[in-house]
């Protein structure tokens, strides 16, 4: 079969993934008070039960609101790029992709991202549009990062990890703040967060924000064709109906525009319009802590290109969990979840491609002894496809095959935490995570440039097997903590989306492209992070990450190397991060530096051919100086990538040095 | 029968001093050190008050009885602990103050939202009040909780551990919200 060469197909083709994050409860715990009591953050993102960050059976990093402020960053990816094991690719001013432990691609399908347990991952293409997350930095309590598969808790697509963005509680946290920013690249931004108490038992938080810029210089020397920008509004409410029953409601809307580097390895001006609503209820009873959560995400995604892949998406998720402490040493969590995911293309058949997924899950935490804690979680997902429009058959995609296709998949997470001493903790974990083919991978039936792009219902999810050994040690004399881990990961049934490299032909000679599973890949990795604070008050951190990937890709997929068929080449092997910070009375000084080794990205030439772009090793240095003018007002200046004026980080835009100033009022 | 709460041990010095010098040092320092070293720290008090906010139902603030037994040392410890509360510590459900109470005058504990047993105080008297009003008995002595003589103990060094005797808590009728219950070390 001839190689597939048209660039324009690929945006439609790639993506993976699809479903179901079983969110870690509806945030009905008092994070602030518990953190005050225990002197460290509390999280539910590891097992679904509240746990101290130091005791979770997973490799987890928690970024606090103080960390966010001191980073000086104005967006979440720029905060994440200084976390060990995370790669951030800046493709343009408004388009960044985030990966955990390698396997980085445009439209990374392996990382599940949630806000308070509500997914913002876009199932239809299988990626996260970081520019289109309706949350303001000022309303974030903490960002919880789980490295490694976590599908047994969150479902499909918690493949390489999970990022759960936890916002302040509108009932418990009286956050009232506003920030304005302005700087180079024509950048201007503003946001405001207000919390309105309603009596003693209810509260509403309202947040609004937006930004605009002229963008970075592109590789051809011009600016982004359309100015990147975004604006959003979000409302969140809590009502403590009785001392043990709480109701939640939330809704929001967002409009975002950014030059976006697609899986086809070229950029399009993409517009995302997102609307969502969410309702929830929690009850604390002697039969356990019950939580019911239902939400709906709707998005209109405009990719340009004359409209053939513009689409509207509809995600509906309903789930119910019970968390019960059976006795002093055993806690269980049981859950059921239903999900519907549908997509309508503007230029398709008028019908809807969709799937329904039903999942059951359970978690058992067994405190074997004061020093040994074993957690096991398992989840089974059952998915079925539907197509309500005109069906386009192919030899390997008949209506009968489509209608009879179901997937039943099992995922698990097991973790043993051993408190060797008050200073030392060992974690041993194993997991099977799952990455679903995206809805486009499974169901698409589009025509681009005379070639039919057909999803394949026979695609299998990628299974991610992970084994990990981690060691934490408190270094009291240094006021520091060491975290180190070594892991092995095996990925089977890698997904080659429609157009991954080959064309097939109908009997009449018309070409079409469909997807296939294209092989396997292994990774070994090592991460070490050392951070602390000196007696003199200097904050410091140092970390190193090593990752090595070996691909075993089918010959037809390997014939056209690209990001999602050459993971070995597209993942930097080495990363070093160093940071310093100091607070002097009203002043805050912070700087972070990051070096990563070379990797290969891909772009599409004017002739429509895939071409490798070697991104050499590079250093990024960021710094922030903040000054607290009064107890209400703080001003700050941020310099991003101040060590170099222009940097090639990807096959997309050059990344330019940025300076911006901010003023924040907090009352 | 009331259970006597152990008095706090005097600070230990690991340095190899001569015996006469150590005796002189002990005589010179032991009394003031004991008087200044409450069996609970300010951090302990903060954690206890915050934990009270997770009771179901949570009291909307109130007074904690600091129970002391016979002897000046116990009374002084209770006064030290009450001093940690100042004009009140804030939980998620209200402001909590503390009052030293002679165990002989505690009665059935009416009017208090918890009983903290000072060094030398009687866990028996505290538990009687706890059972009468479904309020927690709190102590710095983990052994008392392990022995089923009190509901809850707090340690903060080297890290925070809240220990609850599950059977005693159930017998007293004390129930913590799930968010905290999942973090508590139950025995």
Describe it.
The complex is a heterodimer of chains A (667) and B (187). Chain A is mainly beta and 667 residues long. Chain A has one domain (7-168, 245-577): Maltoporin, Chain A (Beta Barrel). Chain A is 7% helix and 56% strand. Chain A is built from 9 helices and 41 strands. In chain A, the strands form 8 sheets. Chain A has a 22-stranded antiparallel beta barrel. The longest helix of chain A is centred in the N-terminal third of the chain and has 8 residues, at 31-38. The N and C termini of chain A lie far apart (65 Å). Mean pLDDT of chain A is 90; it is low at 1-27. The longest helix of chain B has 18 residues, at 19-36. Chain B has a single domain (42-186), classed as Response regulator (Rossmann fold), CATH 3.40.50. Chain B is an alpha/beta fold and 187 residues long. Mean pLDDT of chain B is 84; it is low at 1-36. In chain B, strands 2-3-1-4-5-6-7-8 form an 8-stranded mixed sheet. In chain B, strand 2 (89-91) and strand 3 form a beta hairpin. At the A-B interface, helix 2, strand 2 and strand 17 of A face helix 2, helix 7 and strand 8 of B.
Q: What's the short version?
A:
By secondary structure, chain A is mostly beta strands.
Radius of gyration of chain B: 17 Å
CATH-derived topology of chain B: Rossmann fold
Indicate the low-confidence ranges of chain B by residue numbers.
1-36
Spatial gap, N to C terminus of chain A = 65 Å
- The percentage helix of chain B is 25-40%
Largest sheet of chain A: 22 strands, antiparallel, barrel
Query: Which homologous superfamily in CATH is the superfamily of chain B?
Result: Response regulator
Proportion of residues in β-strands of chain A: over 45%
């Amino acid at each position: 079969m001839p190689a597939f060469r048209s660039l324009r197909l690929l945006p439609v083709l790639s993506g993976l993934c699809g479903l179901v994050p079983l969110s870690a409860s509806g945030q009905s715990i008092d994070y602030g008070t518990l953190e005050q009591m225990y002197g460290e953050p509390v999280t539910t993102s590891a097992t679904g039960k509240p746990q101290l960050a130091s005791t979770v059976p997973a490799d987890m990093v928690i970024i606090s609101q103080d960390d966010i402020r001191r980073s000086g960053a104005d967006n979440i990816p720029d905060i994440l790029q200084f976390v060990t094991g995370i790669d951030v690719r800046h493709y343009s001013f408004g388009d960044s992709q985030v990966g955990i432990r390698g396997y980085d691609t445009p439209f990374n399908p392996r990382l599940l991202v949630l806000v308070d347990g509500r997914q913002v991952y876009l199932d239809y293409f299988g990626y996260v549009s970081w520019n289109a997350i309706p949350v303001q930095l000022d309303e974030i309590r903490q960002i919880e990062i789980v490295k490694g598969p976590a599908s047994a808790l969150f479902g499909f697509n918690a493949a390489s990890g999970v990022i759960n963005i936890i916002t302040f509680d509108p009932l418990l946290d009286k956050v009232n703040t506003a920030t304005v920013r302005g700087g180079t690249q024509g950048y201007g931004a503003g946001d405001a967060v207000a919390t309105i108490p309603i009596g003693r038992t209810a509260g509403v938080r309202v947040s609004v924000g937006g930004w605009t810029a002229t963008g970075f210089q592109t590789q051809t020397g011009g600016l982004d064709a359309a100015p990147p920008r975004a604006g959003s509004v979000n409302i969140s409410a809590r009502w403590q109906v009785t001392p043990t029953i709480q109701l939640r409601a939330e809704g929001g809307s967002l409009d975002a525009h950014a030059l976006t580097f697609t899986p086809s390895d070229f950029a399009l001006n993409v517009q995302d319009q997102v609307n969502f609503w969410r309702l929830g209820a929690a009850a604390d009873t002697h039969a356990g802590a019950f939580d019911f959560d239902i939400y709906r995400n709707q998005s209109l995604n405009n990719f340009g290109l004359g409209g053939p892949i513009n689409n509207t998406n509809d995600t509906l998720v309903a789930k119910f969990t019970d968390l019960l402490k059976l006795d002093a040493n055993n806690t269980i969590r049981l859950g059921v979840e239903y999900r519907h995911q549908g997509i309508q293309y503007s230029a398709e058949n008028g019908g809807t491609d969709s799937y329904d997924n039903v999942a059951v899950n359970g978690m058992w935490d067994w405190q074997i002894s004061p020093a040994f804690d074993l957690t096991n979680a398992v989840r089974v997902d059952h998915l079925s496809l539907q197509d309500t429009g005109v069906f386009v058959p192919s030899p390997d995609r008949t209506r009968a095959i489509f209608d009879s296709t179901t997937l039943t998949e099992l995922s698990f997470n097991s973790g043993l935490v051993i408190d060797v001493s008050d200073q030392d903790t060992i974690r041993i974990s194993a997991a099977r995570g799952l990455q679903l083919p995206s809805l486009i991978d499974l169901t698409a039936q589009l025509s681009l440039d005379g070639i039919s792009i057909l999803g394949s219902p026979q695609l299998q999810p990628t299974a991610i097997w992970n084994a990990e050994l981690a060691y934490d040690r408190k270094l009291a004399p240094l006021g520091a903590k060491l975290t180190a881990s070594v892991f092995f990961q095996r990925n089977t049934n890698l997904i080659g989306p429609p157009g991954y490299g080959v064309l097939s032909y109908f009997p009449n000679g018309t070409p079409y492209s469909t997807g296939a599973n294209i092989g396997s890949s292994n990774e070994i990795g090592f991460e070490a992070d050392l951070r602390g604070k000196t007696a003199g008050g200097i904050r410091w951190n140092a970390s190193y990450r090593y990752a090595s990937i070996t691909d075993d890709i089918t010959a037809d997929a390997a014939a056209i190397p690209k990001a999602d068929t050459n993971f070995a080449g597209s993942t930097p092997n080495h990363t070093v991060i160093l940071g310093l910070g100091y607070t002097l009375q009203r002043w805050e000084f912070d700087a972070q530096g990051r070096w990563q080794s070379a990797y290969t990205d891909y772009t599409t030439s004017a002739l429509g051919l895939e071409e490798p772009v070697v991104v050499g090793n590079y250093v990024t240095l960021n710094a922030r100086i903040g000054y607290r003018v009064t107890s209400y007002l703080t001003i700050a200046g941020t310099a991003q990538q101040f060590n170099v004026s222009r940097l090639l980080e990807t096959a997309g835009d050059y990344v330019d040095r940025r300076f911006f100033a901010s003023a924040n009022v907090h009352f | 029968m009331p259970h006597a709460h152990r008095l706090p041990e005097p600070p230990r010095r690991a340095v190899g001093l001569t015996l006469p010098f150590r005796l002189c040092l002990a005589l010179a320092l032991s009394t003031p050190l004991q008087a200044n070293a409450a069996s609970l720290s300010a951090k302990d008090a903060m954690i206890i008050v915050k934990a009270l906010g997770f009771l179901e139902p949570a009291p909307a603030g109130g007074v904690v009885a600091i129970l002391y037994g016979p002897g000046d040392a116990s009374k002084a410890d209770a006064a030290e602990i009450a001093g940690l509360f100042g004009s009140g510590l804030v939980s998620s459900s209200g402001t909590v103050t503390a009052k030293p109470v002679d165990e002989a005058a505690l009665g059935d504990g009416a009017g208090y939202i918890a009983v903290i047993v000072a060094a030398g105080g009687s866990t028996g008297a505290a538990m009687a009040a706890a059972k009468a009003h479904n309020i927690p008995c709190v102590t710095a002595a983990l052994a008392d909780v392990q022995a089923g003589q009190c509901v809850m103990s707090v340690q903060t060094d080297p890290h925070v551990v809240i220990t609850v005797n599950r059977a005693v808590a159930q017998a007293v009728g004390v129930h913590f919200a799930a968010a905290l219950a999942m973090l508590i070390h139950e025995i």
